[in-house]
Amino acid sequence: MAPRGAGTCGGQHPSPFPKVSPQTSLGEGGGRGPGRGRGVSPLIYRGGSGLPGLAMAEGGGGREGGRRREGGWMAPPRGTAEEGEEEDGHPAAGPGLRFFTWEEIGQRNGGGPPPQERWLVIERKVYDISRFYRRHPGGARLLESHAGQDATDAFVAFHVNKVLVSKYLKSLQIGELAPDQPSIEPTKNKMLVKDFRELRATVEKMGLLKPNQLFFFLHLAHILLLDIAAWLILFYFGTSLMPFIVSLVVLTISQVQASWLQHDLGHLSVFRKTKWNHLLHKFVMCHLLGASAKWWTLLHSQHHAKPNCFQKDPDIDMHPFLFTLGKKLSVELGIKKKKYMPYNHQHKYFFITLPPLLIPTYFQCHTFYVAYTKRYWADLAWMLTFFIRFFFTYGALLEIKSLLAYFFLFRMLESSWFVWVSQMNHIPMDIYYDNNLDWASTQLQATCNVEQSLFNDWFTGHLNFQIEHHLFPTMPRHNYWKVAPLVKSLCAKHGIEYQSL
Questions:
Q1: Paired sense of beta strands 119-122 and 125-128, if any
Q2: For residue 473, how many other CB atoms are within 10 A of its CB?
């Protein structure tokens, strides 16, 4: 199933910036330590609003002053920094603040021999996440995927309360980009980045990130009514074949629509307050669907960060053990002469494996495994309420064999619906390694839309607007159609194909 492509996930835009040469080493008392990259910029400034002796947090604590710690350099004590002047319009930073080049940051991507440092950049500030990334609420892999890169647009896209999150970032900051370094990473399309950030500012001014809570209330109401109706059909009309099938279909519809609602809640797009999204997410995902909310967030955030990027997007982990995905990855397997399955027949066995079996087999087991190993006890308790409710209510009407058949059949139908909706927007697009493109390019090359209609909007949970959803993951889905024309204009301006099926 080698899908058609529209550019590569890793295809690079030509950089508008000249290659930055390594900075010279620090002067007296500031030489390079062992295991460091090729030099740290000597530009250390006094005055401004920098950090007076940076603190690296480990459980809330930190180390002050000019000590060098494992995994990076610490700032020198207040008053020991050399004086400097403003350059390139960037204000002079505070005392003891170190400056870095993009080349130095790119080397701290978690690779190579120990210590495997991991740095990233957000709005020109450089953060050392080497010891924090495993405790990141969104999962370690999400931060790892941006190690050695600029994560500004990803940070803005994922976080609703940026002011609150920024407070926790302060203890991780080790410096800033040197004044002679461009604000936009050289591997990224400078003009596209600027235009996309302007588009996001426009979206915020238009109020398109604000939810219509009546829309989501009505959606939840129709889910609960369908869930109740599925049981009442068997209760009033008996358990013969026809009521059995009708009840099965009604429950499947309820389950799939609940999965679209939990998707909205997981993206924090239903309520303005994060805690209310989390609370209702547990009810819908754990109690109505029987899966872990934190498990879903852990995997889905990684998918959004680097969609269709092999070894970073968990949604394509099926390559190469079950299927071969992407033209370039398929060619790579051919060159290496590796073959785990009869790939030339995968278009045949795909229909009888992944769509009907993903949820009732892999997902059902994996969600319990992750919830248990990561000690998501609250999620596990909520998940048990689903199974208690299901087997108690339906067990009173069906014999054990019919009950198990009913459970497995509605899971298979739900799985088929979910797979076709979720994969039709991604599998046809290009799949390759991550080459650190800008946010907009990464999302546009990995997603495509499906024609809009009232039925398609309902059937897919508005994921027929996959492009808009990936560019603005916290946007309430009822606003996708409003931002779509603006996204099309952005694509047309930069010569990027807006893919729609």
A1: antiparallel
A2: 19
